[in-house]
Queue: 2 jobs
Job 1
Amino acid sequence: MSTREAILDAVRGALGHKTVDGAALRREADALLADLPAIRPDLLADGLVEAFIARLVTPKVAATAERIADARELPAAVARYVEARGLPAAIALQPAAVLQALDWSGFDVHDRVAPDETLAVGFARWGIAETGSLVFHSDAETPILANFLPLHHLVMVRASTVLAYLDDYAAATAGQRPPRNVNIITGASGTTDIEGSLVLGAHGPRYLHVVIVGEATDQSAR
Amino acid sequence: MEEATLSFKARAERALADPTLKIAIDRTTGTAERKRAVAMSQFPQFDAARERGKRIKDHVIANLDHYLLEFERNAIASGAKVYWAATAGEASQIVVRLCKEAGAKRVTRVKSMLGEEIGLPHALDEAGIERVETDLAEHIVQLGGDRPSHIVWPSMHRTREQVSEMFKRLHRAPHQEETIEAMVDSARRELRDKFLSADVAISGANFLIADTGATCTVTNEGNAELTTTPPRVHIVTAGIEKLVPSMGHAIAMLRLLVRSATGADVTQYTTFHCGPKQPGDRDGPEEFHIVLVDNGRTRMLREGLKEMLRCIRCGACMNHCVVFRQLGGHVYGGTYPGPMGAVLTPVLDGLEKSRDLPHACTMNGKCQEVCPVAIPLPTLLRGWRDRSWREGLEPASVRFGLGMHAFFALRPGLYRMATAIAIRVMRLFSRGGVVRGMPGLGAWTAYREFPAPAKRSFMEMYKEQENQR
């Protein structure tokens, strides 16, 4: 008997059952998530984008955020960010069509993120108001390392893709083939490994700046 | 003397005599306790969420065979290879074999308690494969050549002063300034090129998602993704109890896990890894292997410890344990310390070797109170005590003491007389409501005070009241 069979047999022996009805189990599992408002926290504000930003700037998440009306204003927002922090005007630009289409004149732009990259500009598919998180899927437009190597990570997200809860992201993608990586990123990299005190910039970015574009399609949180 | 060969008592005495250790433990557990309390005050739904978390895990455990097969089917469909290991040794051998097949010279590792449990660091070292621990705390443990002492903060037994000294001695470009920020920077510089030049990445999993075949890691440092993206091969080792039906269920568990562990609402990085690099992907491993490990879990299911399979390894029980906070994690001698470790170590290492652990507990119930999946830890510990007694593992002194107690307890008149004498003698030694020293009580009063007994016993007072009626 293979190890696999031995383990499964040991499980079945301990549970004392033979066959299970997969569909009934699925219903039972779904029922455990039927009343989500009772088991998850409240949002920090009524509007989704407002709640998202309020969470982003809490000391726990420690990101910074700003809003712009149109994606075409992103290069100017990056220019302000670079100038305010005295950074070189060189950016690793995520190879996302929505970013590549913008006018980056005045910047030295490259698409491969160096191990000691100072600033990378990225695009997140979703924002999550509950936690102040950004969601990325690995694909041809989204190298995963670009989210982790730079010291400053500046991320654009559309207001219309800010979801209320992590569960809403799970529901939005249920049934689809998952990407290799789903990164849910909340604030900058941090560690509490030396005496429990929080220090930012452990291995990943030390600074996270989120630029929210446009207006939410639905202003209510639920 | 090697710590592993010492008795529990000898290890405990050594830990109690170490003032630096006490400072280190207090700094981390104190912060953890405060932050958790704040997080809970901002999550009034916690009680309901915890009850649900418990039910989610119970549902999975009650149908574990089904979920294991569903996970395996979906993982294979995503391009992963799935392996099954019955024991720690088998699991380590599979990982080492995969590393050798990949021609690995350098392996980067993401902290995983299961990896520690199956002895993976040692197995890789034995196989002559360079092992790079990328979690900051595990990096500190590796530099110090010792063992993790906490499941969330493996290097909590080190003060910042000790970490600073090690980094200065062992890093290529160490920090100049004596701040924790500068030390973290030093580790960032030290590990940067190692992330990018490894041949194989090894991680654990906080959750296995049955309906997609994905594995989930949570970190605050971002070391998991930096570890698992560049190498050609990614190997995941995970206990079979880590399953959840879907991502939605993982999210419900994450809300409990992170608040209980660090007091944050969510970790900085929550990543779902599903199979190898897909067509068009810019980066990622070409091979993705998952090793499902039993190592005592089916035995726990069979032998009345299935509630322990709910454990999501948050560490709250140890942060709130009065015994752990005096001793630290190394004293427990196994992979898992604190209350959850005292339940798990007898399964993993045998009760004969670890019978002291279920006794190193005051039964104050704090661990059960803070457990995010409501594991009745004191009850499970009492179960081990009971079994140790039945199997004749309790030493003669304990059997004699309990025999004496039974002798008096079965003779109420004698019992009353003995307690009446004892409390009067103890009161002779009490000052300001506590006994700080008394013949025969030295083992207790060396580290703590003994509360002075009441003037008279309950039975004496009861009788007096009866007489007044």
Note: Chain B has two domains: 18-297, 396-468.
Job 2
Amino acid sequence: MSAFIAVFLREMLILRRRLKRQISGMAVSPLLYMLTFGYALGGHLEIDGRSYLEFLTPGLIAMGSMTQAFSIAADINVARFYFHIFEEIQAAPVSALAYVLGEICAGLIRVLAATLVVIALGFLFGVGLNYNFYFWLAVALNGFVFAALGVALALLVKSHADQSLLTNFIITPMAFLGGTFFPLDSLPLWAQHILTLLPLTHAAKLIRAAALGEAPAPTSFFCLGAAALLFLVLAVFTVKLARD
Amino acid sequence: MMIQLEGLVKTYGRIKALDGLSLTVEEGELFAFLGPNGAGKTTAIRILNGLTAMTSGRAVINGFDLTKDSLAVKRLCGLAAQHVNLDGELSVRENLEIHGRLFGLARARRRARMEELLAYVEMGDRADSLVKTLSGGLKRRLMIARALLHEPKLLFLDEPTVGLDPAIRRRIWGLIKKVRQDGVTVFLTTHYIEEAEFLAGRVAFIHQGALVTEGVPGEISARLGAWAVDRFGDSEMKSLYFGDRESANRHIQDNNGEFSLRRVNLEDAFLNLTGKKVA
């Protein structure tokens, strides 16, 4: 428990020092998406009887929680390759699970901050949604999935350049294809089937359904839960493999 | 016995970083591992601290097998790595706090040790400074303090004074001596001859991943002689060794050329055994 707190506390101390910069950074992308896609392009667009901004905002929350959770990978990467801080943890009597859970919880705090930023921006654009228990559960599960994936990939890569490549090949396509900006049922059936393999598709579905006051699909909760467990095991495994 | 290594091998592809390294270190010793860059010193320390997996061999630390009881071994050891691996964005106190928690120190003990060690390395006035604002020497002192926080029985210092100016280096040496006097076994790697000679009770030479020789620094040097005469030729310098000063002086008087007379040191012994210089 002490080691888990140490890992989490370290991330929180660093986050506290960077908080102003981080919050501004978290606001830039969603603000631009709301302005361009929601306000300028989709101002007169309606999806299932709701304004496009109402459709877009939960998608941006799903996307923001994914990118913020996954961004711990870049910090772990820098700490590992440039500042060698990961060695301090490797040399301590810390279990792989304690380390991974500490990093994931730190990722979840970022997810919470990013979600609150998008909610606040939504209010500015006149979007009021339901932020109920299922909404927060889906956000937390989404954060857990991508934080665990972030830890695993950060420890698998061999350089900082590899890390950027992974972000480009995994996170960016998912951000655009995971149901953030458009309803997936407008795509051909085969494409919909493929996209249901992406965790973000389920997260966007759940977050949007809960935020719009609809019943969230239990299968999507199951899929996100399974992905969370799978990536947690993978992350623990990669920590154990991280010795050279 | 604090450290027992038997046939330690580490390979990276076709490269053998360690080639059957065997050695022992007794409890309470200040043991120096001397060798040039790339000799395998850091690889050995990384293996003993769980940062690198050994390819084959056996390592036992204070009775615990490193492979079977790695967490127990880690609790016994403190490591000040060759490169500064402090959290620059955290303060001195925060770095120590995190380390204490990583090693499971209870709050009261952690706080008490932090104050003790900040005083020990004379950094009490910098406790709330961000680490990125510290000088190289202060960072080194903090790394030693951090490595000692959880009261390890064995302290690993990997090139603790590399890149520091002579005055700060001497200050770090004083600190290392103090640690040794407090009963902690110290395993030090260095490629500075004078560092090994000044600090170590026992020295081992490592070259191309294998142990070349080991013993008390003075005794290793004495195997060659007591005095060295360096002769500066056209393109290289050659050294001859003599048992006493009179013989060395007689050689200088009997021969033409540019000579200098000095005491035999560990560098001579290393050069004689491996054909290579340490630094």
Note: The first helix of chain B runs from residue 41 to 48.
